[in-house]
């Protein structure tokens, strides 16, 4: 095992696996690209990683380097901001490989991911939304699907809180992505019913304020909620 591989092994996996359970194909691919990236990564600062250093860090394509950086974002929170700047530099025309890798991680394995990785996925969603990355609306819809009605676990409450915080702080992003509004209003109108207890009062108030604002300012898009495929 190389020193880079040993470093990754010392980190938490993206997901919690039961005995004998294999990693998903997406995680294996990301991990492999990260191994290549970290073989010589110590030679460069974050600001020096760009398309010209692909060969120098062991990666053969921009996609491999991008996927390695994505894995780094998920397992190294302290370096995530630097890795994300590298992604922006490398992918001036969008990040299809990053989005396409995030979708199965969220849609298929999000609930199995470690707490740290779940936090990094939400952090990355926020950053992708800020730069209006193509496809981030689909990422948003999948994250909303992970908020389950009737689930008062800490994990579910945290995700609802994180998303309502984003939508409230970045309301203009919702207005620029009206197709997402139906998903948001449908999901939070369902979640509000679960958060009536005093312990969830602060979250309930923020969810209610968001829904009222959406219904008041964007009734046309909210009116499509029953035709939106939200679950």
From TrEMBL:
Integrator complex subunit 3 N-terminal domain location is: 62-223
- Which InterPro entries does the UniProt entry name for this protein? INTS3 (IPR045334), INTS3_N (IPR019333)
Protein's organism: Trichinella pseudospiralis
Q: Name one GO cellular component term.
A: cytoplasm
Per its database record, what is this protein's job?
Component of the integrator complex, a multiprotein complex that terminates RNA polymerase II (Pol II) transcription in the promoter-proximal region of genes. The integrator complex provides a quality checkpoint during transcription elongation by driving premature transcription termination of transcripts that are unfavorably configured for transcriptional elongation: the complex terminates transcription by (1) catalyzing dephosphorylation of the C-terminal domain (CTD) of Pol II subunit Polr2A/Rbp1 and Spt5, and (2) degrading the exiting nascent RNA transcript via endonuclease activity.
Q: What is this protein called?
A: SOSS complex subunit A homolog
Q: Which PANTHER family match?
A: INTEGRATOR COMPLEX SUBUNIT 3
